[in-house]
Amino acid sequence: MFTVIKADQTDIDARSQISEIFADGFTQWLGYFSKDRNKIAKAFAHMFVLNQFYIALADRKVAAMAACTDGTAMSVRLHTKQLIKHLGFFKGNLAGFFLKREFEGLLDNPTRDKCSIEFVGTALEFRGRGAASHLISHILDHTAYKEYLIEEVADTNIPAMKLYQKLGFKEYKRKTIPKKLAEKNGINHLLSLKYVK
Prior knowledge:
The protein has 197 residues and is α+β, with helices and mostly antiparallel strands. The chain has a domain at 3-112 and 119-125. The protein is built from seven helices and seven strands; from the N terminus they run βααββααβαβαβαβ.
């Protein structure tokens, strides 16, 4: 049902579809900048480095997405001018400053044997149909890394945790959220997961 390819190897507008999936999955985290899903999608569409993303396609629609990087190349690059264009001067600058650190991180001590799987998301119409599972399985089966890392999954993201555990990922690090922030967003821990071939 799903065909997996790199996002830069298709003739469809993968960037806009990826940005919509991103907005659906991340608007709750980016609510300070805008609660408007369409505005978030437009503001962040520029950032995806398409040759770092895999997509699961179904009938020319992006059903799921995930970046896979070896830590020497970034999967996203934020441009403050684009953020200002869509979010306004103040919030665009803030997004550029704070999210650059959060989104543009590289692996500590990158090696050819280790990669990071990032920005995993499924389009609303394909949720619960195995698109993300198929996509991540493809990455695990068709890349030559020995170790796959998924950083900072919210402990409340039960569907994602079940998916990763089903695929063989194990928790290796847990970050506790400060109490005030945990009470505000309902997340107690951010979990880091690892899969070793």
